[in-house]
Amino acid sequence: MIPVPESRLLLLLCIPLVCMVIGYFQPFFLIIGSLLDIIILFYSFFDVFTTISTKDFSLDVRTPRIFSIGRKNNIYVNLLSRCRIPLDMKIKIQIPQFWTDFTENETLILNPGEKKELILTFQPQRRGVYNIDYCYVKYKTRGKVFSIREKIKVNLVVEVFPDIKELNYFVQLVRKNKLYEIGIHKNRLQGSGTELEYLREYHKDDDSKRIEWKATTRINKPVTKVFQMETSNLITLVLDCGRLMTAEAEGLSALDYSINALLILAHIIIQMGDMLGIIAFSDRIIGELPPQKGKNSINKVSHFVTKLKPEFVESNYRLILSYLRTRIKKRSLIIFFSDMIDDINYSLFSNSFSFLNKRHITLFILLRDTILMKNAENAPDSILDLFVSTSATEMFMRRKEAIAKLKHSGISVLDVLPTQVTPGLVDKYLEIKARNYI
Fold it and tell me: What pLDDT digit, counting tens, does each position of 56-106 carry?
C-alpha cells in the first residue's frame, strides 16, 4: 500500500503557509499556523490509518483465453463494494510488450454495495502466450487527502492467435452467402469438373457452353449445368519467415497478414474436402505440418502458425525448393507466401522454379512493402531523400522484373498489399479449383 498526497492535502497545507507568511508581520499568526500544521498532520495520519483496504471491495479479472492479433480485445474487471462510502477508483492492467491500450475510461465510482464491470480494451501486435500477473488499483482515502496504490495478483494467461475474429466473420459470410462483401466472386465457387452436380437457372456470368438445352426448352428458361469440383487434392502452403516478411503495415508484419489469410484459406480448403499441408522456412526449415483433412484440422493449423515469428535472416530459396522436390511426390497446388524483392533471387533459382512448376501448380503470393512504396512515391526534399527515393524506385523496378519472369515461367503471381491479401488469395484458389487445374 503506497499513499500518495492528493491535491486536497496540498490546498489544506496552503492555509498554514499563508499564516506563516502573515506571521512575519504579526507573530500571533505564527502560533495559528503551527497549530494548523499539527491538526492537518494528525488528520492526515488518521486518514491513512483508517483508510479503505482491499477488504472493503472484491475484484475479479476475467478474459477470453484467446485474443486475435491486430484486433481490439477486451479484459473484464468485475468489482463489488463492501465499503460504507463511495469508492473513487482507477484500475489498470499490467500491459505486456507489443500491446496497445485503447481503454477510454479506467476510472469509476463504486457506491456502497454496488457491483460494476469495467472493460479494458487492448490491441496486441504480436502472436504468442502472455502472462498478466498484476492488476494495479488506485483509490482515494476516506478524507480524500491521499490516494492509495495497490498491486493485486491476478495470474492471467492470454494466448494471442492469428486473426480468429476475421475467420469467424468469414464463416458467417459463408453461411449468409455474402462472400461478395470481402471481394470474393460467387461464380468462382462453381466447379468445372467432369461429374454433374446439379442444374440451376442461368446467370449472366455463366459460360454459355454449360447451358442444358433440354431443360431450357422444357421450362422455357435458360438452365445451366454445375459440375462437382474435384476433392482430395493436395494443397501445400509454404510460409517464408525470413527478413522480407518483417516489413510492417498498420502495426502487423507481412508474416502476420499472411497467416491471417492462410487461416481463412485453410478453412475453405478443408470445407472443399482437400488435404492441407504447411511448411515454414527461413534460412532453414522451421517446421512442417503434415497434410491434414477433416474438421479438426483447423485447430492444428491455428496452433502451428501461432508459434511462427519472422526472423531477421535471409531466406534460403535453394533449400526450400530442394526440400519441396524431395518431399512432395503427388501433384499438388503449392502456394508461396513471400516477397521476392528483385530478379536476382529468381535468376539464382530459375531452374528449380521451372522444375517445380512442371510437376505442380505454383502460386506466389507477393506482399508489397508499404514503407518502400512510400519512399519510392514521395517527392524528395533533400539529397538524402533523393538517394532513398531513387533506391526504392530501383528496388521496385527489379521486383517487377522478377514478377514478369515468374509469370513467363508459367507461375501464377498475386502481387498485393498486405491488407488486401485475403480476398485475392481466396478468389485465386477458388478459380484454380473451378477450372480443375490441380
Answer: 788 888 888 788 888 899 999 998 888 877 888 888 888 888 898 988 777
d(CA 338, CA 368): 10
3-state secondary structure the chain: CEEEECHHHHHHHHHHHHHHHHHCCCCHHHHHHHHHHHHHHHHHHHHHHCCCCHHHEEEEEECCCEEECCCCEEEEEEEEECCCCCEEEEEEECCCCCEEECCCCCEEEECCCCEEEEEEEEEECCCEEEEEEEEEEEEECCCCCEEEEEEEEEEEEEEEECCHHHHHHHHHHHHHCCHHHHCCCHHHHCECCCEEEEEEECCCCCCHHHECHHHHHHHCCCEEEEEECCCCCEEEEEEECCHHHHCEECCEEHHHHHHHHHHHHHHHHHHCCCEEEEEEECCCEEEEEEEECCCCHHHHHHHHHHCCCCCCCCCCHHHHHHHHHHHCCCCEEEEEEECCCCHHHHHHHHHHHHHHHHHCEEEEEEECCHHHHHHHHCCCCCHHHHHHHHHHHHHHHHHHHHHHHHHHCCCEEEEECHHHHHHHHHHHHHHHHHCCCC
SS (H, E, C) 185-218: CHHHHCECCCEEEEEEECCCCCCHHHECHHHHHH
- How far apart CA 283 and CA 320 sit, in angstroms, is 9
Q: Distance between CA atoms of 234 and 239, rounded to whole angstroms?
A: 16
Burial of residue 342 (number of CB atoms within 10 Å: 0-12, 13-18, 19+): middle
Tell me: the pLDDT tens digits for 333-374?
Answer: 999 998 766 666 667 667 677 778 788 888 989 888 777 777
CB atoms within 10 A of CB 255: 29
Rounded to two decimals, what is the model's pTM? 0.72
